[in-house]
Amino acid sequence: MSNVFSFTGTVGRDAEVRTTPNGQTVLNVTVANNIGFGDRQQTIWVRVTLWGKRAEGQLQNYLKKGQQVFVSGELSQREYQANDGSTKSNLELNANIIDLVGKRNEQGSVAQPQQTYQPQQPTASQQGIPASDSYDDVPF
Predict the structure, then answer these.
(1) For residue 44, what is the domain's CATH number?
(2) How many domains does the chain divide into?
(3) Mean pLDDT over residues 21-47, rounded?
Protein backbone atom coordinates (compact mmCIF):
# COMPACT_ATOMS: atom_id res chain seq x y z
CA MET A 1 0.00 0.00 0.00
CA SER A 2 1.57 3.27 -1.06
CA ASN A 3 -0.60 5.74 0.81
CA VAL A 4 -2.18 5.17 4.20
CA PHE A 5 -4.81 7.44 5.66
CA SER A 6 -5.92 6.85 9.26
CA PHE A 7 -8.51 8.77 11.25
CA THR A 8 -11.21 8.53 13.86
CA GLY A 9 -14.73 9.56 13.07
CA THR A 10 -18.42 8.91 13.53
CA VAL A 11 -20.51 6.54 11.42
CA GLY A 12 -23.05 8.63 9.48
CA ARG A 13 -25.50 5.82 8.67
CA ASP A 14 -25.71 2.09 9.28
CA ALA A 15 -23.27 -0.07 7.32
CA GLU A 16 -24.54 -1.87 4.24
CA VAL A 17 -23.29 -5.24 2.99
CA ARG A 18 -23.89 -6.46 -0.53
CA THR A 19 -22.50 -9.01 -2.94
CA THR A 20 -21.14 -8.02 -6.33
CA PRO A 21 -22.22 -9.94 -9.48
CA ASN A 22 -18.96 -11.91 -9.36
CA GLY A 23 -19.66 -13.06 -5.78
CA GLN A 24 -17.37 -10.65 -3.88
CA THR A 25 -18.76 -9.35 -0.56
CA VAL A 26 -18.42 -5.61 0.10
CA LEU A 27 -19.25 -3.56 3.21
CA ASN A 28 -19.87 0.17 2.77
CA VAL A 29 -20.13 2.74 5.54
CA THR A 30 -19.85 6.53 5.53
CA VAL A 31 -17.73 8.11 8.27
CA ALA A 32 -17.62 11.79 9.29
CA ASN A 33 -14.38 13.38 10.46
CA ASN A 34 -14.42 16.85 12.03
CA ILE A 35 -11.36 19.01 11.43
CA GLY A 36 -10.55 22.46 12.73
CA PHE A 37 -12.20 24.12 15.70
CA GLY A 38 -14.61 26.89 16.55
CA ASP A 39 -16.22 28.65 13.62
CA ARG A 40 -13.59 27.15 11.30
CA GLN A 41 -14.60 23.57 12.05
CA GLN A 42 -15.76 21.53 9.08
CA THR A 43 -16.89 17.97 8.54
CA ILE A 44 -15.27 15.74 5.94
CA TRP A 45 -17.28 12.70 4.82
CA VAL A 46 -15.34 9.61 3.76
CA ARG A 47 -16.93 6.57 2.11
CA VAL A 48 -15.23 3.52 3.66
CA THR A 49 -15.23 0.16 1.86
CA LEU A 50 -14.20 -3.23 3.24
CA TRP A 51 -13.89 -6.15 0.80
CA GLY A 52 -14.02 -9.95 0.83
CA LYS A 53 -13.91 -12.15 3.94
CA ARG A 54 -13.41 -9.11 6.14
CA ALA A 55 -16.85 -7.83 5.06
CA GLU A 56 -18.65 -11.14 5.65
CA GLY A 57 -18.56 -11.25 9.48
CA GLN A 58 -20.66 -9.55 12.13
CA LEU A 59 -18.90 -6.18 11.96
CA GLN A 60 -21.87 -4.64 10.12
CA ASN A 61 -24.01 -5.21 13.25
CA TYR A 62 -21.75 -2.81 15.17
CA LEU A 63 -21.27 -0.13 12.51
CA LYS A 64 -24.44 1.80 13.33
CA LYS A 65 -25.15 5.53 13.01
CA GLY A 66 -23.33 7.43 15.78
CA GLN A 67 -20.72 4.74 16.47
CA GLN A 68 -17.21 6.12 16.83
CA VAL A 69 -14.62 4.25 14.75
CA PHE A 70 -10.95 4.24 13.85
CA VAL A 71 -10.31 3.45 10.19
CA SER A 72 -7.14 3.10 8.19
CA GLY A 73 -6.51 2.25 4.56
CA GLU A 74 -5.75 3.56 1.10
CA LEU A 75 -7.38 6.90 0.28
CA SER A 76 -8.57 7.97 -3.16
CA GLN A 77 -10.68 10.77 -4.57
CA ARG A 78 -13.42 10.14 -7.13
CA GLU A 79 -15.02 12.78 -9.33
CA TYR A 80 -18.54 12.46 -10.72
CA GLN A 81 -21.23 14.50 -12.46
CA ALA A 82 -24.04 15.66 -10.18
CA ASN A 83 -27.66 15.83 -11.34
CA ASP A 84 -27.31 19.58 -11.91
CA GLY A 85 -24.37 19.01 -14.28
CA SER A 86 -21.65 20.22 -11.91
CA THR A 87 -18.57 18.14 -11.15
CA LYS A 88 -18.38 16.89 -7.57
CA SER A 89 -15.80 14.78 -5.78
CA ASN A 90 -15.78 12.50 -2.77
CA LEU A 91 -13.18 10.70 -0.69
CA GLU A 92 -13.12 6.92 -0.65
CA LEU A 93 -11.08 4.74 1.67
CA ASN A 94 -10.32 1.10 0.87
CA ALA A 95 -10.07 -0.03 4.51
CA ASN A 96 -7.50 -2.33 6.02
CA ILE A 97 -8.50 -1.61 9.64
CA ILE A 98 -11.88 -0.75 11.14
CA ASP A 99 -12.00 -0.64 14.96
CA LEU A 100 -14.79 0.51 17.24
CA VAL A 101 -13.78 3.19 19.76
CA GLY A 102 -15.33 5.25 22.53
CA LYS A 103 -19.05 4.95 21.98
CA ARG A 104 -21.16 2.84 24.35
CA ASN A 105 -24.28 0.90 23.44
CA GLU A 106 -27.75 1.36 25.03
CA GLN A 107 -27.09 -1.11 27.88
CA GLY A 108 -24.14 0.98 29.09
CA SER A 109 -21.47 -1.60 28.31
CA VAL A 110 -18.69 -1.01 25.84
CA ALA A 111 -19.65 -2.23 22.37
CA GLN A 112 -17.25 -5.00 21.40
CA PRO A 113 -17.08 -6.22 17.82
CA GLN A 114 -16.96 -9.93 17.19
CA GLN A 115 -14.76 -9.25 14.20
CA THR A 116 -12.18 -6.59 13.49
CA TYR A 117 -9.48 -6.90 10.93
CA GLN A 118 -5.93 -5.81 11.61
CA PRO A 119 -3.20 -7.02 9.29
CA GLN A 120 -0.22 -8.44 11.11
CA GLN A 121 2.85 -6.27 10.83
CA PRO A 122 6.26 -7.95 10.58
CA THR A 123 8.42 -7.55 13.67
CA ALA A 124 11.64 -5.56 13.57
CA SER A 125 13.72 -8.75 13.47
CA GLN A 126 11.65 -10.08 10.53
CA GLN A 127 12.38 -6.85 8.66
CA GLY A 128 16.12 -7.18 9.34
CA ILE A 129 16.16 -4.27 11.79
CA PRO A 130 18.24 -4.99 14.89
CA ALA A 131 16.25 -4.76 18.11
CA SER A 132 17.60 -2.39 20.74
CA ASP A 133 16.68 -2.49 24.43
CA SER A 134 18.44 0.77 25.20
CA TYR A 135 17.14 4.18 24.22
CA ASP A 136 19.98 6.11 25.89
CA ASP A 137 21.36 7.25 22.54
CA VAL A 138 18.05 8.90 21.44
CA PRO A 139 18.70 12.68 21.34
CA PHE A 140 15.25 13.73 22.61
Answers:
(1) 2.40.50.140
(2) 1
(3) 93
Range(s) of the domain holding residue 58: 5-100
CA angle 73, 116, 34 (to 5 degrees): 50
E-strand ranges in the chain read 5-11, 16-19, 25-35, 42-51, 68-81, 87-100
Q: Is residue 14 part of a domain?
A: yes
CB 65 within 8 A of CB 76: no
CA distance 31 to 46: 5
Torsion angle, CA of 69/70/76/80, rounded to 10 degrees?
Answer: 10
> What amino acid occupies position 137?
D
- Residue 102's contacts (CB-CB under 8 Å, 6 or more residues apart) are 68
Within 10 A of 67 (CB to CB), how many other CB atoms are there?
23
What are 100-131's pLDDT values in tens digits?
997 554 543 444 444 454 555 555 555 555 55
Tell me 110's DSSP state.
B
